[in-house]
């Protein structure tokens, strides 16, 4: 599945022209802003059908960057790109894309591609610095701030080999897109900023298909990796066909989370060979009676979790809802079923396994094998059906 995106990227690298931003006037010492020079290089590439937007190794200072189809932002080894923090550079956007999809955000993202295909960012030991501290002080939560890397309605996306540091808001946020590879991306934000989380989700994906995440390393102030699926009334856009592997989550709320935006439904997600160190929750699926959707065919294999602060494994239908009484099944009733965990090991401080379904929609068909999560607390199962843990049926 992912081959497609990688092949496209190779094709772009092999056959396309190189648009060197310094030839369009970008300063590579990091002293002079080069927003306009980068935009000129991108415009020229766009007119000629795409290519590599090449940043020779150095330092750059810029405002927002918008990528187009058949284009790879190709950043030289060791480069640091710092994003200017003047809010006037990031005005609100409200756009209708060629396929009719509407997108509006309160701030222009730092790097974006909307409604494009075959588009990527690649580097080696590259740092993107969002100067988040200034934004967090200026607009503390619950205010919103600009998203760092934002792809919407895109097909064939490759993100490879860069570190995002100090993101104003979400770090990587991809919505309504397919054919996505995220490889060797590192994310570094403080765990807590003046005692508050600055909404810095590491990798936040919404209604995406055919996704491969490998070798990512996330330490941040909100969920490390989170899969959502948007839906409203009859329009529901699922997240499906996802693999995340060989990754490391060291600081954050949920290490690998599904939900709480679930109305579009999420299915066929595999998580394997990952290490979790000291996050708040380990592997969690969370939703509630306002969120809806079906979450099914989710597989977790070979996960080590060390010193998770709350639950190791948590499947929760009462996220931000304290009413465990029976309610009639409706449009927004969530269903969680067919979830498998094999070889999950480590320790946590609260319930090693928490399954909290609804009386009208129990969580069902959960198989947990070869699993040993040490904890001072017991396993807790509520409103669940057909749960098998290490060979014993509950
Ligand atoms: C999901 O997995 C099931 C069972 O393995 C398979 O039949 C189905 O085609 C998959 N669907 C998608 C969208 O990947
Ligand atoms: C889990 O780890 C074992 C031992 O390293 C390996 O043989 C197996 O293929 C892994 N499972 C998956 C699904 O990757």
Automatic annotation (TrEMBL):
The keyword Signal applies. One of its GO terms (molecular function) is polygalacturonase activity. SMART domains: PbH1. The active site is at residue 253. One of its GO terms (biological process) is carbohydrate metabolic process. The keyword Nucleotidyltransferase does not apply. Residues 1-17 form the signal peptide. Pfam families: Glyco_hydro_28 (PF00295). InterPro entries: GH28_Enzymes, Glyco_hydro_28, PbH1, Pectin_lyas_fold, Pectin_lyase_fold/virulence. Keywords: Glycosidase, Hydrolase, Signal. It comes from the Eukaryota. Belongs to the glycosyl hydrolase 28 family. This is Glycoside hydrolase family protein 28. It comes from Callosobruchus maculatus.
């Amino acid at each position: 599945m992912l081959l497609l995106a990688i092949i496209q990227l190779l094709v772009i690298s092999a056959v396309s022209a190189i648009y060197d931003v310094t030839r369009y006037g970008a300063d590579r010492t990091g002293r002079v802003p080069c927003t306009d020079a980068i935009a000129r290089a991108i415009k020229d590439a766009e007119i000629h059908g795409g290519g590599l937007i090449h940043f020779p190794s150095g330092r750059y200072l810029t405002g927002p960057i918008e990528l187009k189809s058949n284009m790879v932002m190709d950043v030289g080894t060791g480069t640091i790109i710092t994003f200017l923090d003047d809010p006037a550079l990031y005005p609100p956007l409200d756009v209708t894309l060629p396929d009719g999809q509407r997108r509006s955000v309160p701030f222009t993202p730092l790097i974006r591609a909307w409604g494009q295909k075959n588009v990527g960012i690649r580097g080696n030991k590259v740092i993107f610095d969002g100067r988040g501290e200034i934004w967090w002080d200026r607009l503390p939560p619950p205010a919103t701030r600009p998203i760092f890397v934002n792809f919407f309605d895109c097909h064939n996306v490759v993100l490879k080999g860069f570190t995002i540091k100090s993101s104003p808001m979400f770090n990587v946020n991809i919505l309504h897109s397919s054919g996505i590879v995220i490889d060797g991306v590192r994310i570094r934000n403080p765990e807590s900023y003046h005692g508050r989380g600055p909404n810095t989700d590491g990798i936040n994906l919404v209604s995406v298909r055919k996704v491969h995440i490998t070798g990512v390393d996330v330490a941040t102030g909100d969920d490390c990796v989170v899969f959502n699926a948007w839906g409203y009334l009859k329009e529901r856009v699922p997240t499906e066909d996802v693999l995340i592997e060989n990754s490391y989550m060291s600081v954050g709320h949920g290490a690998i989370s599904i939900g709480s935006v679930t109305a579009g439904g999420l299915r066929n997600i595999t998580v394997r060979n990952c290490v979790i160190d000291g996050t708040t929750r380990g592997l969690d699926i969370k939703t509630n009676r306002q969120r809806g959707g079906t979450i099914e065919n989710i597989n977790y294999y070979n996960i080590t979790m060390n010193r998770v602060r709350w639950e190791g494994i948590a499947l929760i239908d009462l996220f931000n809802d304290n009413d465990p009484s029976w309610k009639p099944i409706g449009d927004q009733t969530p269903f969680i079923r067919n979830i498998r965990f094999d070889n999950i090991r480590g320790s946590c401080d609260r319930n090693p396994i928490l399954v909290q379904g609804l009386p009208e929609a129990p969580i069902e068909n959960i198989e947990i094998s070869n699993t040993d999560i040490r904890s001072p607390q017991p396993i807790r199962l509520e409103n669940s059906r057909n749960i098998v843990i290490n060979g014993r049926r509950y």
